[in-house]
Amino acid sequence: MTQKANLFKGQQKKKSIPPNRHGKVPQIRKGKRFVKPSKITKDMETDREISKFINQCNEVKAATAAKKEGGHLSLVKAPAEPASSEKK
């Protein structure tokens, strides 16, 4: 049986932050890392394309709103031209 009341089965002692660390950086917990799925389905591909489109639309809206207010925000990447227009 444990002598400390807060260390029963399955519980761990919480680390307290020292009052003075003298310039030492706090330890950052890395956690679970993102692992790429081995099989990429069509649904995953369409979700990725949709999110790219939404992000691009949001960037364009933010840039136009900034220009209206007198700012100089512009997009770095120009939208890619479709390959069908180049063949004409």
UniProtKB/TrEMBL annotation:
InterPro entries: UPF0390 (IPR019034). It comes from the Eukaryota. Residues 11-30 have a biased composition (Basic residues). Coiled coil: none annotated. Signal peptide: none annotated. It holds the Pfam family DUF2462. Residues 1-30, 65-88 are annotated as: Disordered. This is 2,3-bisphosphoglycerate-dependent phosphoglycerate mutase. It comes from Trapa incisa.
